[in-house]
From TrEMBL:
Domain Chitin-binding type-3, chain residue ranges per copy: 28-71
Taxonomic source organism: Streptomyces carminius
Annotated spans, Disordered: 55-87
Coiled coil (UniProt feature): none
The UniProt record lists the keyword Magnesium: no
Residues in the signal sequence: 1-24
Source species taxonomy: Bacteria, Bacillati, Actinomycetota, Actinomycetes, Kitasatosporales
GO CC terms in record: extracellular region
Organism superkingdom: Bacteria
Keyword Oxidoreductase: no
Protein name per UniProt: Chitinase
Length: 293
């Protein structure tokens, strides 16, 4: 934000003052998605004024066609539109994230998610804008299903907790036999998964599995680790499924295909698909083909 310099006069000496810093222009009427704009029409959006170079409707400045010409900042600076992507480059804005998960647990912060993106920079950042949005929607739709809408941080069936220690692994279960229950957005479980995820992320999750339920960024990183590197019962990672055009159904197969695909649990599959459709619509894109498994 531009600063304003102050000048002082000493005694009665005449002082030639520098030209005053020009103040930011006033913002014109805000851009309206339903309005029609023609050559020369000016609107404001995201702290800038924009002038249309030809007829346009429903193309938000700055757009992709070159119709909008940036006339500079207005109103004293920039103010991000909550419906626009996060400055980190993530295709889901915080406002959209909150709309997707209206009842989420406060643990699952948007900031935790965006902080985790650096661990896997190709996630929702590969291919066309449509592919990026589809991948983000696919990830969040599956996460929604696994956590009841980002409500559950840990697995609810405590009777399962002792079952996730594979003592046949050479490193055993140093945090305790019942310490490797499901946690986080994809409900990471089993000692070998905590070991593998921790090794990949540079975090000692084998000895400190509780970090996944105490640190939002770590929790999101474990989910992104699975999404980007693990194929589970499928034949490809969920990331590869989305960026290579195999469709949302293959992400379901990679996450829980052994229990849901091939007609085993169609209601669960449909629940994931419905949420994916909803999220792609919210992000302004289409779901594509091959939605079920």
């Amino acid at each position: 934000m531009a600063g304003v310099a102050a000048a002082a006069l000493a005694g009665s000496l005449a002082v030639t003052l520098p030209a005053a810093t020009a103040s930011a222009a006033e913002c014109t009427s805000p851009w309206n998605s339903s309005a029609v704009y023609r050559n020369g029409d000016t609107v404001s959006h995201n702290g800038h004024n924009w002038t249309a170079q030809w007829w346009t409707q429903n193309e938000k400045p700055p757009g992709t066609s070159g119709v909008w010409k940036d006339k500079g900042t207005c109103g004293g600076g920039t103010s991000p539109d909550p419906a626009d992507p996060d400055p980190s480059g993530f295709v889901v804005s915080e406002a959209q994230f909150n709309q997707m998960f209206p009842n989420r647990n406060s643990f699952y912060t948007y900031q935790g998610l965006t902080a985790a993106l650096s661990a896997y920079p190709a996630f929702a950042n590969t291919g066309s804008e449509t592919v990026k949005k589809r991948e983000a929607a696919a990830f969040l739709a599956n996460v929604n299903h696994e956590t009841g809408g980002l409500v559950h941080i840990v697995e609810q069936n405590t009777a399962n907790y002792p079952h996730y220690c594979d003592e046949g692994q050479p490193y055993g279960c140093p945090a305790g036999e019942a310490a490797y229950y499901g946690r986080g957005p994809v409900q990471l479980s089993w000692n070998f998964n905590y070991k593998a995820a921790g090794d990949a992320l540079g975090i000692d999750l084998l000895n400190n599995p509780h970090l996944v339920e105490r640190d939002a960024a770590v929790a999101w990183k474990t989910a992104l680790w699975y999404w980007n590197t693990q194929s589970g019962p499928g034949t490809m990672t969920p990331h590869d499924a989305m960026v290579n055009g195999h469709g949302f159904g293959e992400t379901i197969r990679s996450i829980n295909g052994a229990l849901e695909c091939g007609g085993k649990n169609p209601a669960q599959v449909q629940s994931r698909v419905d949420k994916y459709r909803q999220f792609t619509q919210l992000l302004g894109t289409t779901p594509g083909d091959n939605l079920t498994c």
